[in-house]
Amino acid sequence: MSYASDLTDEQGALLEPGFNDPGKRGPKHGPDLRRVVDGMLYISHTGCQWRLLPESFGPWTRVWSQFRRWSRNGTWARALTVLHRAAREAEGRAQATPSMVVIDTHLARGASNGGLTFHDRGGAYGRTKGAKHVVAVDVTGLPLGALAVPASMHENRTTELMLEHLASQRVSGRPGLVLVDRGPLRPPGA
After folding, report:
1. What is the end-to-end Cα distance of the chain in Å, rounded?
2. What is the pLDDT of residues 45-90, one digit of tens each?
3. Bridge-partner residues for 150, per DSSP?
4. Residue 99 contacts residue 120 (beta carbons within 8 Å)
5. Is the predicted pLDDT of residue 182 greater than 80, yes or no?
6. Can you say whether residue 173 is alpha, beta or left, with left for phi > 0 and alpha for psi between -120 and 50 degrees?
7. Given this model, what pLDDT does residue 109 score?
8. CB 3.0-4.6 Å disulfide test: which of 58, 123, 130, 133 passes with 151?
9. 3 state SS of 188
């Protein structure tokens, strides 16, 4: 059975080398790897619970454990890099990696029922509970990376973490200009 969230053959061929990287114990799923990836995309597309994953994708525990493994070892970040480079190439960009990166953060507040509000804790400079989402894009709006950090973390530190993350994934090389909330930040040595 096929679903709207399934990879096309072209998409599968583009991403397969990254997903098929052999680990210490060899390839994890061999021939049914595409079915496992399609199961992950089905979860992402529909928002259903892991345990309600249709049986056509195989055991939900197998799909879930592979998703967790790839999330921890950076496979998803590398897949994003492959997709980003392919999109830039399709747009006719001269360089595979961007020379300018835009980084923004968004506060993800917790539940709204009960407790002190954001402003009761002293606003942006007080002790803020929850998390911040840090997102990096190129000038065309294509995503480069995303991180979740504690909400109390300073903007400068979130920018440093994102630049370290992009460098470790070899996404942006050495960008000439990084735009953040408070204005441009020139990377060291640029």
Report:
1. 52
2. 999 999 999 999 989 999 999 999 888 888 888 888 888 888 888 8
3. 131
4. no
5. no
6. left
7. 66
8. 130
9. coil
pLDDT at 59: 92
- Of 98, 99, 82, 107, the residue nearest 158 (C-alpha): 107
- pLDDT at residue 154 tops 70: yes
C-alpha 170/C-alpha 81 separation (Å) is 8
Euclidean distance between CA atoms 67 and 44, whole angstroms: 11
Contact at 8 Å (CB) between 166 and 172? yes
Buried b (16+ CB within 10 A) or exposed e, 144-155: bbebebebeeeb
Those residues with Cβ within 8 angstroms of residue 163's Cβ, 6 or more apart along the chain or in another chain: 101, 103, 178, 187
Please name the amino acid found at residue 62: R
Does residue 43 have a pLDDT over 90? yes
CB 12 within 8 Å of CB 38: no
- Reading the block at residue 104, the tokens are 């923004």
| CA separation, residue 168 to residues 57, 95, 108, 109 (Å) | 32, 19, 25, 29
pLDDT in tens, 89-106: 888 887 777 878 899 988
Residue 57: predicted pLDDT:
92
